[in-house]
Amino acid sequence: MKLQNITNGSHGPSRRLYNDACGTAHALDLIGERWALLVIRELLLGPKRFADLRADLPGISANVLTQRLAGLEAQGILARRALEPPASGHVYELTEWGYEAEPIIQALGRWASRSPTHDPTLPLSATSLMLSFRTMHDRARLAGIEAQVGFRIGRERFRMRIAGSELSVGRGEAEGADLVFTGPATAIAAAVYGGVPVAALEAEGALSLDGDRDLLARFVTLFPLPAKFSKPA
């Protein structure tokens, strides 16, 4: 596709946009710049401060994050909101339209998980892990489970509800859940997706579990990954 240089002050001094009426091309105009889609991902479970976004996106500079936030705000995908007293500062949150990007991110994640070059040991944010649960759960395997699962991941808290072959997860206190994971997102992912025995992670001090061990045994099987793609010989 032919590329066109267009100057747009809200996105920086210059952007390269596709001169193409296709909706896919325009989607790339909106969210195709590096880090833009990951900024949206980090806001799918609720608003965040600038510092929290930067902490959850290893490798992004403050300058680039500022540019991406400004560009996404200019497009109407997110908004900047002042916190009410006694809190101070601002948070960034997705607009109603911005939240509609979740199925796009889910589809990309599910598709890319088949890549033989995907490295699951790389850094993983808490939000990314929770979204992976919303994406990868197998409804047939959820059948018969009625439970709440809590997650303490650094400064963040999440709560998952499983009922009637449905799963929901969002921000919320972990206390009182039937099963509670405490540890980094990478350790939880290792238990759920990597097949690492929970006992081994506990022995290393990487993960702490409280609650129903029978539920734990089922939980780590609820999110099967698709088979890796094998290139034709």
Question: How is this structure best summarized?
Answer:
The chain is α+β, with helices and mostly antiparallel strands and 233 residues long. It is built from 11 helices and 9 strands. The N terminus is likely disordered.
Protein architecture, described:
The chain starts with a strand and ends in a 14-residue tail after the last helix. The protein is of the alpha+beta class and 233 residues long. The protein has 2 domains: 3-100, Winged helix-like DNA-binding domain superfamily/Winged helix DNA-binding domain (Arc Repressor Mutant, subunit A), CATH 1.10.10; 116-219, SCP2 sterol-binding domain (Nonspecific Lipid-transfer Protein, Chain A), CATH 3.30.1050. The strands form 3 sheets. The chain has a 5-stranded mixed sheet with strand order 7-6-5-8-9, with helices on one face. Strands 1-2 form a two-stranded antiparallel sheet. It has a two-stranded antiparallel ribbon with strand order 3-4. 38% of the residues lie in helices and 20% in strands.
Helical percent range? 25-40%
Secondary structure: number of strands:
9
Q: Which fold name corresponds to the CATH topology of the largest domain?
A: Nonspecific Lipid-transfer Protein, Chain A
Mean pLDDT: 92
CATH superfamily of the largest domain: SCP2 sterol-binding domain
How many domains would you count in the coordinates? 2
Top-tier CATH class of the largest domain = Alpha Beta
Quickly count the helices: 11
Question: Overall 3D geometry?
Answer: globular
What is the CATH-assigned architecture of the largest domain? 2-Layer Sandwich
Class of secondary structure makeup: alpha+beta
| Terminal CA distance | 31 Å
Question: In angstroms, what is the radius of gyration?
Answer: 20 Å
Biggest sheet character = 5 strands, mixed
Strand content: 15-25%
SSE pattern, N- to C-terminal: EEHHHHEEHHHHEEEEHHEH
Strand order of the largest sheet: 7-6-5-8-9
The poorly predicted ranges are 1-13
